[in-house]
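2024-03-11 09:14:02 DEBUG pipeline.ingest accepted 1 chain
2024-03-11 09:14:02 DEBUG pipeline.ingest length=126
2024-03-11 09:14:03 DEBUG pipeline.predict start
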Amino acid sequence: MYKRIVVLGIMGLTFVLGANYLLVYTLNQQVVRERERQDNVYWKTFNAIEQFGEHPNTSSEQKAKAALHEARQGGLSKNRARILQNYFEDLERCYQGERESCKKANGDMNEAILAPKASLKVGGPR
């Protein structure tokens, strides 16, 4: 009788640990896929804004605005979207002649570059 209880206990424990592992693994894979999707959208939008910063014309401005809109529609996190929006708006104001915005745009660019790295620290290593 004692052997049956021990065997059932070990089998139950193995089942619970195995199911837990599969659940955690599946959730982790979903998180990794979502993070990669967010990173792709983020950097695509960042590059469009950078193009506007390098070549400030109506075409690049429209591309940057479209990329920002697409990123918001594509489910980019609010924090990341806000960082990119601030960077874009400061670049716009800078090219309209506001000196303070030019200085702020540089800081916004640095924040935009570091934002994805900071989110990796919160979520842990890949």
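2024-03-11 09:14:41 DEBUG pipeline.report Residues 67 and 73 are 10 Å apart (CA to CA).
2024-03-11 09:14:41 DEBUG pipeline.predict end
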